[in-house]
Amino acid sequence: MLKHRETPDCRTDRSRLMQRAQDGDREAFQALVADVEPSVMRYLRRRIPDPNEVEDVLQETFMAIYESRHTYECGRAFEPWLFAIARYVAARHAKVFFARVKREALEATIPDHGGRGSESVLAAVRRGLARMPLAQRQAFMLLRVQGLSPVEASLLTGASAGNLKVRAHRAYQYLKQILL
Amino acid sequence: MRTAYEITELVARLDKGEFRRSSRLWSVGARLALWVSLEIAIALAVAIFAPRGDLYLRFGTLLYASEIVLFTAAGIVAAELALRSAIPGRQISAGEIAAFVAMTATAIVLVATGPSSKMPLSEFLAAGERCLLCTFALAAAPWALLFLLVRRGTALREGMTGSMTGAAAFFFTIAVTRLGCPIDGAIHVLTWHVGSAFVAIALSAIVGHAYLGLQPHAVSTR
């Protein structure tokens, strides 16, 4: 049985839920996540340039909230605390995103295929896909061909979202090498 | 809107199935009091065991007393800002930074208007080396303690929090070393006391950037 040290300063429902979460109450944290998730999602949608990645950033934000839960002071408003963390995670993600876009824009300047027709390119891609490890092929097909978000692909495959991104990128690099 | 099942799954992935109680952060006031206690103990130790010969006489001069008071205040303010900046939603405002910079600048101007002492280069370097070592030795424990106290929180502007941590420890130490250092020359104090503090603040910002704040995570499935 958990004992909650509720203080008179904890006036709002969210403050009380967070206080219980600090005391180790998982149900309280679940209720809090369910309560704030729509507003955090809306907030992130306005700040994340790639809509496919909003879900990832949302999870990253809840991870940060979970890990920083001890820093919430019950006497203070909950929302500034929550959105300060969301803003930080979104800013960090945006930084990584723009660095990646810049890198991919450079990589996308693939030189001419030396007169190879589209059919031979397609055949080369097929050969490349057949040769690469199954896990890489699966990640590439899910993320780059079918356009699933890493989280959706993660739920399908059981691999972590980060792992899938790495595998898809390796597959992409491998195909690029074949086509050059 | 997510279903209750999806929320449960999400939380399960966040905590990997183990939802632990988290010990709450001590208040900024409590942590600040702990840090100031250590600084006062160090200042008392210097004043009792290694004071400059004319310490009590020098306290009678407005310039010297103001320098000590301003650097002490700057150190305490910086410590408060560092501790507060590691709490999400309580970041330092531009006005607070401006006020802190103004206070520090005033203290430095007071040092610069101090007496000019002419000494040979070799003596200047030898005395400076002693003061440099003393500054770093006296600031090491307060910096480490404050860094640990700040690290208990979550710094969202890591570099800024790191530099404030450095500023707190080293500005307070400027005041402490002035209790023991017999040289009042403006060039000596600016170079070896204030200058070394600024180098340390820059290093502290780098360390803060690396070790404070949240680490990025890939959310993994169980």
Number of domains of chain B: 1
How widely separated are the two ends of chain A? 64 Å
CATH class category label of the largest domain in chain A: Mainly Alpha
Helix content of chain A: over 70%
Question: What is the mean pLDDT of chain B?
Answer: 89
The average pLDDT value of chain A, as a whole number, equals: 81
What is the radius of gyration of chain B computed over CA atoms, rounded to a whole number of angstroms?
A: 21 Å
CATH H-level superfamily title of the largest domain in chain A: RNA polymerase sigma factor, region 2, helix turn helix motif
Largest interface: A-B, 47 and 35 residues
Describe the overall structure.
- The complex is a heterodimer of chains A (180) and B (222).
- By secondary structure, chain A is mainly alpha-helical.
- Chain A has 2 domains: 13-102, RNA polymerase sigma factor, region 2, helix turn helix motif (Rna Polymerase Sigma Factor, Chain: A); 113-179, Arc Repressor Mutant, subunit A, CATH 1.10.10.10.
- Chain A has 8 helices and no strands.
- Chain A has helices at residues 13-22, 26-47, 54-67, 78-107, 118-131, 134-145, 150-157, 161-179.
- In chain A, helix 7 packs across helix 8.
- Residues 1-6 of chain A have low confidence and may be disordered.
- Chain B is an all-alpha fold and 222 residues long.
- Chain B has one domain.
- Helices cover 73% and strands 0% of the residues of chain B.
- Chain B is built from 8 helices and no strands.
- Chain B has helices at 4-15, 28-49, 55-58, 62-85, 94-112, 121-151, 158-180, 186-211.
- The longest helix of chain B is centred in the middle third of the chain and has 31 residues, at 121-151.
- Chain B is elongated, with a radius of gyration of 21 Å.
- Chain A binds chain B through residues 2, 22-26, 29-30, 33-34, 37-38, 56, 59-60, 62-64, 66-73, 76-77, 80-85, 87-89, 92, 151, 154-155, 158-163, and chain B through 1-2, 4, 7-8, 10-11, 13-15, 19-25, 27, 86-91, 152-154, 156, 214, 216-221.
